[in-house]
Amino acid sequence: MRISSLLFACLFKTVFAASFGEQISDSGISHSFLITGTKTAIIGEKCEILWEVKAKSRDGEVLPNGNVLVTFA
After folding, report:
1. ∠ CA 7-59-28 to the nearest 5 degrees?
2. Are 4 and 48 in contact (CB under 8 A)?
3. Are 41 and 15 in contact (CB under 8 A)?
4. What Cα–Cα distance (Å) separates residue 56 from each residue in 12, 45, 64, 70?
5. Rounded to whole angstroms, how far apart are CA atoms 69 and 8?
6. Which end of the chain has fewer surrounding CB within 10 Å, N or C?
7. Each residue of 3-51: pLDDT tens digit?
8. What is the pLDDT of residues 38-62, one digit of tens each?
9. Do 40 and 57 form a contact (C-beta atoms < 8 A)?
10. Sheet containing 33-35: which strands, arranged edge to edge?
């Protein structure tokens, strides 16, 4: 399951960039993101899993202090 989530994230990033254009910046801006649903994880800027909880979730947010607020299903 961990590999499939990572694969999904990388494919999503590739498809999204191909469909809507790719951001190009002089400073090399990139982002990590939180995924919720059947998997709950933070995917890093290089498509690596930075944080993962093996539980289904409905919604979540990374707070300014770095804590993760999640509503579990």
Report:
1. 50
2. no
3. no
4. 20, 23, 23, 10
5. 22
6. N
7. 566 656 665 655 555 444 565 667 877 888 899 999 899 988 888 899 9
8. 989 998 888 889 999 988 999 999 9
9. yes
10. 33-35, 40-43, 49-53
